[in-house]
Design a protein that fits this description.
With about 120 residues, the protein is α+β, with helices and mostly antiparallel strands. It has one domain: Trna Endonuclease, Chain: A, domain 1, CATH 3.40.1350.10. It has a 5-stranded mixed beta sheet with strand order 1-2-3-4-5, sandwiched between helices. A hairpin with a 7-residue loop joins strand 2 and strand 3. The chain is elongated, with a radius of gyration of 20 Å. About 20% of the residues are buried.
């Protein structure tokens, strides 16, 4: 529900700016939306594009990117945007960040395995 609200807020923001929005949320591309600004003289062509990752929070909280999202942001640089929508549980607030990789993210390590040495196994009887 929170993520749906956030995507709606981000999409509405882009459409109000006159941009054309395409959802790619289900394609695992490292972003949720592609937003294109139509050429004023030829609306079938586009003169600018944003690759947007949307993050929604019920209140105000930490935002995390998956490894795929982070690597995509590194690759796309200024074409990659983070749209963080805080307070989705009440009055949503949209905060947009171009090239979010420059902000100094902290890596979060996930546990892949647990290991046990041979002495512990032998003495664990």
């Amino acid at each position: 529900e929170i993520e749906r609200i956030a995507v709606e807020v981000a999409t509405r923001n882009e459409e109000e700016r006159g941009w054309v929005v395409e959802s790619v949320e289900d394609e695992n591309r490292g972003f949720d939306l592609i937003s294109r600004r139509p050429h004023p003289e030829d609306p079938k062509t586009f003169i600018e594009v944003r690759f947007i990752e949307v993050k929604g929070r019920a209140g105000v909280g930490v935002v995390a990117l998956s490894e795929n999202e982070y690597r995509t942001a590194e690759r796309l640089k200024n074409d990659y945007w983070l749209y963080a929508v805080f307070n989705c549980g009440g009055t949503p607030e949209l905060h947009t960040v171009q090239n979010p990789v420059r902000l100094g993210w902290q890596a979060v390590m996930a546990v892949e395995h647990y290991r046990l040495g041979p002495d512990a196994v032998k003495g664990g009887g």
